[in-house]
UniProtKB/TrEMBL annotation:
Source species: Pseudonocardia oroxyli
Gene3D superfamilies xref list: N-(1-d-carboxylethyl)-l-norvaline Dehydrogenase, domain 2 (1.10.1040.10), NAD(P)-binding Rossmann-like Domain (3.40.50.720)
Residues where Mg(2+) 2 binds: 226
Residue ranges occupied by any KARI C-terminal knotted domain in the UniProt entry: 218-357
InterPro entries xrefs: 6-PGluconate_DH-like_C_sf, 6PGD_dom2, KARI, KARI_C, KARI_N, NAD(P)-bd_dom_sf
Protein name in the entry: Acetohydroxy-acid isomeroreductase
Taxonomic path: Bacteria, Bacillati, Actinomycetota, Actinomycetes, Pseudonocardiales
Keyword flag Transcription regulation: no
Chain positions recorded as Mg(2+) 1 binding sites: 226, 230
GO biological process: isoleucine biosynthetic process; L-valine biosynthetic process
GO molecular function: isomerase activity; ketol-acid reductoisomerase activity; metal ion binding
Lineage top rank: taxon: Bacteria
Length: 480
């Protein structure tokens, strides 16, 4: 990653170094130069990412000659909300999708994955010559490769991919107005660079979003790690884990509230906070290490097997096709909600107890959760992903964005209110993880720990990579 505008840093990671950019509001004056000829940015879509990114970019570019506009369908129910946040037809900052595409120098495509797969051809046809295509997810590339298509020639293609929800991207940006360094990390990818300025544009976009730490990847690597991660430790695996453990603890004699605390509250609270602030090994050090080791040993192989299967299905397009196929079906029959299983009825009571009751780290839950997280880390490492991408997609996004959000509400609420792509994947793979925990891991948790496997965890290079990334951690926790 080389920039003609920003001063980058070298990050030491296992096996070498990576180039990263440390963000901050002091860089905002450089944005017009870094965007290299961009005078109008069109943000297409008003979902959580579209809303957050349009507002962040507009605020970061305030006082410059660069305009941020939003493109929506004429009948979009989101138009009223966009107007309420200051994007209006009268000011030229709100318009129909194709009109905004046609007049923008950088077109940021943030509509739903399946919708983009269906509409990309007419969007590409409306692009002005030389316009830069911006993505925040590599899903479209995966879809095009699976269907024999390609991104249009003659256009720079860049991606800026925040490692957190749209709500997190906006809320931490707002916190960054008073707390230096607040923000959500992002990866960038430069897929096509016909004029030689694509990297600077991508970095400017990331800085404008408030990213405290920007690292480089490829568009292919991004969509694979992102889609796998959603189905793995970020959503699918954690949902399957807490459901399995809740039932286990009930059978072991816990009352429902205690079972909820041991299964769910310990993950979203003390485990997430410990990893965020002190790393993975600190979780083991903060609880019964012998039981942690047995739980880790019982879980790792079963979790790794599922992560590898998910990765294969994402890589060959199977998982992406399932998302596209669901679009027409869900227009007729929307997805049912999963928050009706018995354990979620106790969430309000558990959250109400926090003021007077501190939930400890449960060693069984901790061992199983960390084993699943490390299984995903190891799978990504074996598949050739860069360490910055690995720790952000498998650890930092979980403990600094998603798990705090789940802690404020609950895991089921998160699943029922995430993106359609993530929700479909979680509903498909969460039960697979749950079955593996119930049928493979938990029945063998009483066996002696695998000393070689535990030693491998303690010496895993992820600890070095996470420590390096932690030096660039936002200086404030997300407001949820």
């Amino acid at each position: 990653m080389r920039s003609d505008v920003f001063e980058t840093e070298t990050l030491t990671v296992p096996g070498g170094t990576e180039t990263v950019l440390r963000g901050g509001r002091h860089l905002f004056p450089l944005l017009p130069q870094a965007f290299h000829g961009v005078r109008r940015i069109g943000v297409i879509g008003w979902g959580p990412q579209g809303r957050a990114q349009a507002k962040n970019l507009r605020d970061s570019l305030s006082g410059t000659e660069i305009t941020v506009s939003v493109g929506l369908r004429p009948d979009s129910p989101s138009r009223a909300d966009a107007r309420a946040h200051g994007f209006t037809e009268e000011s030229g900052t709100l318009g129909d999708v194709l009109a905004v595409v046609a007049e923008s120098d950088l077109v940021v495509l943030l509509i739903a994955d399946a919708a983009l797969a269906a509409q990309h051809q007419e969007i590409f046809a409306a692009l002005k010559p030389g316009a830069t295509i911006g993505l925040s997810h590599g899903f479209l590339l995966g879809h095009l490769r699976a269907t024999g298509g390609d991104l249009p020639a003659g256009h720079a293609v860049i991606a800026v991919c925040p490692k957190g929800m749209g709500d997190s991207v906006r809320r931490l940006y707002e916190q960054g107005a008073t707390v230096n360094g607040a923000g959500i990390n992002a990866s960038i990818a430069v897929h096509a660079d016909p004029d030689g300025h694509a990297t600077d544009r991508a970095l400017a976009w990331s800085v404008g979003l408030g990213s405290p730490y920007t690292f480089e990847t490829t568009l292919e690597s991004e969509y694979r790690s992102d889609v796998v991660g959603e189905r793995g430790i970020l959503l699918g695996a954690v949902h399957g884990l807490v459901e399995a453990l809740y039932r286990w603890f009930l059978l072991d004699g816990s009352d429902p509230v205690t079972a909820y605390e041991r299964a769910c509250e310990t993950v979203t609270g003390p485990i997430a906070r410990t990893i965020s602030r002190a790393g993975l090994r600190a979780v083991r050090e903060g609880t019964d290490a012998e039981l942690f080791d047995r739980a880790y040993s019982a879980t790792y192989a079963a979790a790794r097997e599922i992560v590898a299967e998910i990765y294969d299905e994402v890589a060959d397009g199977t998982e992406l096709r399932s998302v596209v196929l669901a679009d027409a079906r869900l227009a007729v029959r929307p997805m049912s909600r999963i928050g009706g299983s018995p354990m979620w009825a106790h969430g309000d009571e558990v959250r109400a107890r926090r003021a007077t009751h501190e939930t400890p780290i449960d060693p069984l839950t901790a061992g199983m959760f960390v084993a699943t997280m490390v299984a995903q880390v190891d799978e990504f490492a074996d598949r050739g992903h860069a360490w910055s991408e690995i720790v952000n997609e498998s650890i930092i996004e979980a403990v600094d964005s998603l798990l705090p959000y789940m802690h404020a509400r609950d895991v089921a609420y998160m699943v029922d209110n995430c993106s359609r792509t993530a929700r479909l994947g979680t509903r498909r793979w969460g039960p697979r993880f749950q079955a593996a925990y119930e049928q493979i891991a938990l029945p063998t948790v009483g066996a002696q720990a695998d000393d070689k496997l535990v030693a491998g965890f303690l010496s895993n290079p992820v600890h070095e990579a996470l420590a390096a990334a932690a030096e660039l951690r936002p200086s404030v926790d997300i407001s949820v």
